[in-house]
Amino acid sequence: MSDAVLFEERIADNGSRLGVATLNAPQTLNGLSLEMVDLLDARLQAWARDPAVALVILQGAGDRAFCAGGDLHGLYASMLEHRGQGPWANPYARDFFEREYRLDFRIHTYPKPILCWGHGIVMGGGVGLMMGASHRVVSESSRLAMPEISIGLFPDVGGTWLLNRMPGRIGLFLALTGANLNASDAIYAGMADFRLDCADWPRFCEALMRQPWASQPGGPGTGNLAPRSINDGLLRQALLAHEPRAPLEPGPLRQHAFQVNSVCGSNRLDEVYEEIAALKDHADPWLARAAKTMLAGSPGSARLAFALLQRTRLRSLADVFRSEYVAALACVAEGDFQEGIRALLIDKDKQPRWRPATLAEADEAWVQRFFEEPWPAGTTHPLADLGPGAA
């Protein structure tokens, strides 16, 4: 059995080391398991303490995906086992979301550059890993999305924080529709920073070995600059030097940005939902598909995503993770998450029976249960010790 994550340390020409972590489950599109989470977290902590490691590269095995999401099969089994027992009764879900969110937060606040190679499919838990990296790189094969509405969840892994920081109202649109973004739109939406062609990735990695990385604090040639600042700059220069020469054409999100902002302009979810639904027969296939995905998705997920975006709009990253943790455990217990996984991955009938079945039933009173802390009195939040994070 192969290792779930492959780790390697490459020695640059000046003796500095580059830590490389490769998600190694290409048969499941590098779906993020709890084992992967624990292996990554432990190694990132070790590399953070090692002054010889200048930066970290995070990538996925195979050419189809960086990471297509989290361990839905494991969560589904745990939901069957603890059905009807309440949000706090599922130890696997408690551990999975706590440890996954801790890893994501660590990436956001990491003391060294992290380059994430977001080739191929990047969804759900993959977005959680990628969005906190200091240098997020996409390619012509990249397809990014947070399609949790289709499985009865919501854009978690810090997705609420990310969506609230996108231009205009596009974050709300993406939360409700799970729309796919190509490389151009990922950069426009703030989900990526740089782009490389897949064919140039090996050549770019070779070029990294020739950079004069700063490893030891205060080492030769650093002057008054901290090693982090030097290495951030060197990595940026290398990425820009290998950027494709062909101009980046606007993707469908940017092309339709005015319309997206218009249909999402209301502060009432029912009005936004109705406006997006009207796009289901639009001549543009990207808009039509987005509307149809929303209409086929969980009304409860739409309400929850909308409520989380409103409640956490001005909160710190750490506070967002804490809110998402409570909501995720409620999703595990409520039923739509289990039903969404069943319809998509278990029975594969793609005919989920959502409860509540309509947005009118999933009203503002109904969604309050997703914000009630489920643990016994006197128990502190499992993520209480997360730092303030990004503002």
Q: Tell me roughly what share of residues is in helical segments.
A: 40-55%
- Overall 3D geometry? globular
Report the total helices.
16
Strand content: 5-15%
> Order of strands side by side in the largest beta sheet?
1-2-3-5-7-9
The CATH class label is Alpha Beta
State the fourth-level CATH superfamily.
2-enoyl-CoA Hydratase, Chain A, domain 1
| SSE pattern, N- to C-terminal | EEHEEHHEEHEEHHHEHHHHHHHHH
Class derived from helix and strand content: alpha/beta
Number of domains: 1
Give me the CATH fold name.
2-enoyl-CoA Hydratase, Chain A, domain 1
* Cα-based radius of gyration, to the nearest Å: 21 Å
What is the CA–CA distance across the termini?
42 Å
Keywords: Hydrolase, Lyase
InterPro entries: ClpP/crotonase-like_dom_sf (IPR029045), ECH_dom (IPR045004), HIBYL-CoA-H (IPR032259)
Organism: Bordetella pseudohinzii
GO molecular function: 3-hydroxyisobutyryl-CoA hydrolase activity; lyase activity
What can you tell me about this protein's structure?
Helices cover 43% and strands 11% of the residues. The protein has 391 residues and is an alpha/beta fold. It is globular, with a radius of gyration of 21 Å. It starts with a strand and ends in a 45-residue tail after the last helix. A hairpin with a 5-residue loop joins strand 1 and strand 2 (17-23). It has a six-stranded mixed β-sheet with strand order 1-2-3-5-7-9, with helices on both faces. Helix 1 (34-49) packs parallel to helix 3, helix 2 packs antiparallel against helix 3 (91-108) and helix 3 (91-108) runs antiparallel to helix 15 (317-334). It has one domain: Alpha-Beta Complex (2-enoyl-CoA Hydratase, Chain A, domain 1). Mean pLDDT is 95; it is low at 218-224. It has 16 helices and nine strands.
